[in-house]
Amino acid sequence: DVKVTQSSRYLVKRTGEKVFLECVQDMDHENMFWYRQDPGLGLRLIYFSYDVKMKEKGDIPEGYSVSREKKERFSLILESASTNQTSMYLCASSLAGDAGELFFGEGSRLTVL
Amino acid sequence: EDKVVQSPLSLVVHEGDTVTLNCSYEVTNFRSLLWYKQEKKAPTFLFMLTSSGIEKKSGRLSSILDKKELSSILNITATQTGDSAIYLCAVWIQGGSEKLVFGKGTKLTVNP
């Protein structure tokens, strides 16, 4: 069964802390994506990657960075967490040339106090 | 700016009703339109529509794309409580950086 795993399901952090959200997929997918989901705003793309060490900004990259050192792993980093980054973070992956059919992880709910 | 708009944003029906969810889009380089269902956790893929006028069907769910009207509908017949979810519409943008742009979703609640 195909799987996208987000290691932290629930996190509570303080303002100013550095936060790492990890995502691992076992489908050998080339594409990986980070979205955040907020009530009334839907899913918004933060960053995506089409290959190892490659990254591209999505629609709301400010305050975030990413790392893709291995094909199966895509990390989202909040250098200095702020309260407006409290959200549900969803990782997804897809095959190269098939950005349409995404496989999502179960999400990481981050609360920044 | 690429835009995907879903309506209604929320809907409450009774079991057995038929519902129609709407999605319209304004994007630069359209490739396909997709529907996802999100229950408590991860969105799961329902349909991908690329050609106008061809209905895709899966059980009680069906969807069709109208490229002239830049829209799509998702129909659910004989709704069940298990259909309660957020239904997400997304458009696959083709270009140098291919990506999905999502609408805000329609929250469907099916009451027994």
Please outline the major beta sheet of chain A. 7 strands, mixed
- The total of beta strands of chain B comes to 11
Stretches of chain A where pLDDT is under 50 for at least 5 consecutive residues are: none
Number of strands of chain A: 11
* pLDDT averaged residue by residue of chain A: 93
Mean pLDDT of chain B: 93
Rounded to the nearest angstrom, the radius of gyration of chain A is: 13 Å
Strand content of chain B: over 45%
The secondary-structure class of chain A comes to: mainly beta
Chain-wise SSE layout:
The complex is a heterodimer of chains A (113) and B (112).
Chain A: E1 4-6, E2 10-13, E3 19-25, E4 31-38, E5 42-49, E6 56-57, E7 65-70, E8 73-78, E9 87-94, E10 103-104, E11 108-112
Chain B: E1 3-7, E2 10-14, E3 19-26, E4 30-38, E5 44-49, E6 56-58, E7 61-66, E8 71-76, E9 85-93, E10 99-102, E11 106-111
Parallel strand pairs in B: 2-11
Antiparallel strand pairs in B: 1-3, 3-8, 4-5, 4-9, 6-7, 7-8, 9-10, 9-11
Outline the structure in words.
The complex is a heterodimer of chains A (113) and B (112). With 113 residues, chain A is mainly β. Helices cover 0% and strands 52% of the residues of chain A. With 112 residues, chain B is mainly beta. The chains are: A mainly beta (113), B mainly beta (112). At the A-B interface, β5 and β10 of A face β4, β5, β9 and β10 of B.
Compose a concise summary of this entry.
With 113 residues, chain A is an all-beta fold. Chain A is built from no helices and 11 strands. Chain B starts with a strand and ends with a strand.
List keywords for this structure.
heterodimer, A: 113 residues, mainly beta, seven-stranded mixed beta sheet, 52% strand, B: 112 residues, six-stranded mixed beta sheet, five-stranded antiparallel beta sheet
